[in-house]
Each structure stands twice: as C-alpha cells, then as structure tokens.
Amino acid sequence: MGKKNNNQQETLINIFNEKKNPTSVFVFLIVLYFVSNFIVIFTSRNAEVVNIMGRVVPSAIITGVFSSVSNIAIISMVAVYRHKGFAAALTLLLVQFPSVVFTIFVAKTYSSIPGLFTNLMAMIAIILIYSNNLAKEKYQETLNAQAITDRLTGIPNRFACTEYISTLIKRENPFVVVSIDINNFKSINDSLGHSNGNKVLIEIANRWKIVAESGASGTQDLVARLSGDEFCLIIRGYATEEDIIKTINHYENVLENKFTINGNDYYINASFGYAMYPEDANETDMILSYSDVAMYDVKKKNSSNHICHFTQELLKDENNLEIERIIRYSIDNDGVFYMLQPQFDINHHLRGFEALARMKEAEGNLISPATFIPVAEKVGLIDKIDSCVFDKSTKFFGEILSYHPADFTLSINVSVRHLMKADFVDEIISTLGRNNFPADHLEIEITESIMIESAEKALECINELKNYGIKIAIDDFGTGYSSLSYLNKLPADLLKIDKSFIDKMNLNESSKQYVAAIISIGHIMNFEVISEGVEDVEQIETLKKINCDFIQGFIWGKPLPENEAKELLLNS
Ligand code: C2E
Ligand code: MG
Ligand code: MG
Asked: Per-residue pLDDT tens for 255-267?
C-alpha cells in the first residue's frame, strides 16, 4: 500500500486496454514472412520450373505468389500491431535490403530487381499505413478520453465508473464502492445560482482528485462524478475495514476547508455510503445501488456520523420506502381499489362479502395487503386506505340496493389507528348516509390486537357503532392473546377463526377439538362463528360436524372483482 502516484485517466485507460491482439498471431505473421521469403529466394535462384505433385509449374509463378504473401504478412503486422508491428516490419525490410542490393550490383543477378522494387514499395506502404494510423489513433484517444471524462469537472464520469467496476468484478479484485452526495447542495445552487454551484462542484472534484492521485489516503482510489452533486469513490488495496473508513475520512476532511465563491465563504459536507465487493454484492448495478442505499440512510438519519456501511437490514427499509411511495401514489391517484370475497353459510347460501384492499405497482402487478398494510400502518396511511375501501364498497352496494333490496352483509376491515381516530364513528355514519348504504348491512372487522392495545376506547367506539345497528366481527381470532374475560365484555356478533387453525384442523384430533372448542365458546357467548381460509371439502365436512355457522375460503369463493360479486349477489 505504498504512496504511489495514481493518475486516474491512466488507470482507466490501462484497465480498458484489456482486449489486446494476441501475441501468437504476431509470431505467426513473422514466421509466415520468413517462410514465404525463403520460398521466394529458393525458387528465384534455382530451376525455371518446379514440380508440384507431378505438375510442372513455372517457378516465377511460385515466386510471385510467395512474395505477395510475405508483403501481406508485413502489412498486416503494421495494420494490426501498430508501433510493435511497424518496428518489426521495418527491421525485416531493412535487413533484407542489403542482400537484394548485393545480388543485383555485386553478384549481378538481375532477377532480383523486381524484389528490390517490391521491397521499396512495401517500405513506402508501411510508412504510409503507420503514419495514417498514428493520426487516427490520436483522434481515437481524444474521443476515448472524452467518453470517460465528466465535462464539468474533468474527473471520470459515470460510464468510466461503471466500466471500471465491471472490469474489477471480472478480475475478481476486491474493492469498495462509496456513493457520495453533497449535503444541501440544492440550497447552494438555489442561493448562488447554477454557474456558481458548478464552481463548487469543480472545486470539490479538484480536491478529491488530488487525494486520489497523490495516494495520500494509503489506498488506490478513483473518484468519479456520476451526475449533479453525486460522486462515486472506488477504493482498492485496503487490508481492513478500518482502512476503508480512513480513506473515506481523507475525502471528508478535504471538504472541511471553506469554499470561497464570489468573495463569500461556504462550508460543505457530504454523506458517504459504501458497499464491498464481493462481501455485499457481486454485480455492478447491485453494488452501486447498495452503496446508494447506505448513503441515503446517512441522509435520512441526519446524524453526525456521515459514513454508513450497507447491510441487508437497510434494504428492508428501502423496500418499505418504495412501498410507501406506491401507497402515497395510489391514494393520490385513485389507485386504491378492493376485491370482494364471498362468505357463505354452511349450506352454501350467500351471507355477504368481505371487502379487501388492493393496489398495483407501476408495472401493473398487484401487491398483496400482507406487504402494504403493515407499511401503511407504520407510516400512518392505513386510515386513508380503510376509508377508501369503505367509501367505494358502500357506494357500489348502495347503488345495487336501490334496485335490488337484498339481505346481505358487507364486511370491512379497520385498523387500530383508524378506529382510535376521534371522528371515526362520524366518518362511518356520514359515508353510509352519502352512499345510501343501510347501517344494519354493515359489519366492521376488528382484530384482537385492538382490544389488547386500547380496550376501553375501542369498547366505547364499538358500543356506539352497535347503537347504529352496525355488526362487529373479531378478525383473525385465536392469533392474539385473547382472554375469555375480554370476549365476554365485547358486544361482537361474529368470531372469525383464523386460517392457521383451519389449515391444521384435519391433521390431528386435538387440532380439530381446539376449533370445536372455539366454536362452542363463541356460541355460548352468543357469537356466530365463521371459518376463514377454507380450502378443501374435508374441512367443510369437519366444520359442518362441529357446528360452524359460516365459511369464507377459496373453496367456495376467492376475492372477486365488483362485476362478478354483483352477479353472485343478483343470482343468489
Ligand atoms: P383478513 O381480514 O383476515 O382477510 C382474509 C385474508 O385471507 C384475505 O387476504 C383473503 O384473500 C385470504 N383468504 C381468504 N380465504 C382464503 C383461502 O382459502 N386461502 C388463502 N390462502 N387465503 C384466503 P388478503 O386480501 O391478502 O388480506 C390480508 C389481510 O390484509 C386481511 O386479512 C386484513 O387483515 C388486511 N386487509 C385487507 N384489506 C384491508 C383494508 O381495507 N383495511 C385494513 N385495515 N386491512 C385490510
Ligand atoms: Mg378481515
Ligand atoms: Mg382474518
């Protein structure tokens, strides 16, 4: 880990020049040249005709063919192997020159005159090809340099950065990618104007380039600008994670000196997030996005520690952020909708429907409530989803009821957060009024956890709802820590046995007896009981035997879109 000068441009060019032409072809061209020359000399000095496989061929023809071959070998060398090819070709031609001159002028063998001519012409040709190549190469180098250089700051750009990372991955060299974002750069840009903002970026890049090229950090670094105020640092040649932090500190420290723009002083700092190859990620896009995730975590926490190492844990938060974004977008753009899962009595007569929230991501794929409900609860958006499903489903059935007065129950799910809102009951009642949906057709599903978290307030609310004729169901029964005493206090109408109990029910006698006991206790307390997640005929048979009242499950009905639910209701 010596302090070695490390020109960024050179590093990149060296690393990209991997695809060299193979040396074996070069050797082949030299051998081809010698062999064909030997044949030329042999045939021109000996007999007038040569016997090839019983056929008599004039030796002049053989000489002509092989002298062309030797010239092609020479020209290919210059065209393909540039400097090396030119040096070799020129040497070969010059070495041959005196011997041709000797045979003509001293040995007076005039048959070598065409050879002398060819030799001279070949020399002119390779000099022309070489000088033409040189001019093209220079131009190509300028183009290459432009392609890998950021125009504003002159340091490597995003393309250079990703190519460099891909090459390091191909070579299986361990390295670290550090995503860097300048803190509050937007406000600098807004207050100073764009051109002064650019001056700041140039100054930052210059300071970092000096660190990278001086080797002051003790590691081999390459710093690139990806876009705007986003930079990327790639570190190699470290031994421990401490070395990585030390290197990042170097880059952090050079920002500490004030930035003077138009006579005013500014102080700048940045957020650094890093991911390691191969420990954290082993693909270019993956490692870049993971280091970004770590960097965003620094920004989000806004703490004094400006450096963060990527962990899988952060990815979960990141995923939640994406889900939160989808939820917000769906709420703002009328993207929340619902499906209706039918509920039946044990004789397969329709009891009603449970409205279940749905939303889609940008590509149109449905995301499951198991994914978005917990996030919506965490970020305080669940009541908006609940309200949306409630409003849309009561409006839909309110319209049907206006021309088809049917007796059925619409169940909706509410979260603790929503139920605890001061105006929850008012919201329910006013929505029912607006959508012409009768209160006694509505059932509100609450989970056991509501009772555990805030029993008193929940009870107050539930009693109020009951006064309007609204039914109450206890959802996912059996999964919480329900006690008989709270069940006794709860003026519920329906117990919903969670799917997990139904799944196990037919596996052994004790699981069956457990479900039977829940049903009996429910009945003793004057609740009706529904089994959720019923998927096969044997389960229905058992549930009939142990007196379950209702069935909700894929066997008799999956969650349906509005039109199919309407058809089912009209035909029942
Ligand atoms: P839940 O209220 O217990 O709803 C029943 C869930 O079980 C639904 O899943 C339903 O599709 C699924 N299910 C029913 N029968 C079967 C079956 O036979 N097999 C299988 N594998 N699954 C079955 P979904 O729609 O994914 O909803 C999951 C949970 O998300 C719901 O559980 C509920 O707690 C919550 N949820 C759904 N919509 C809303 C809403 O609008 N507001 C609130 N707060 N929560 C909601
Ligand atoms: Mg439910
Ligand atoms: Mg449930």
From this structure: 999 988 888 888 8
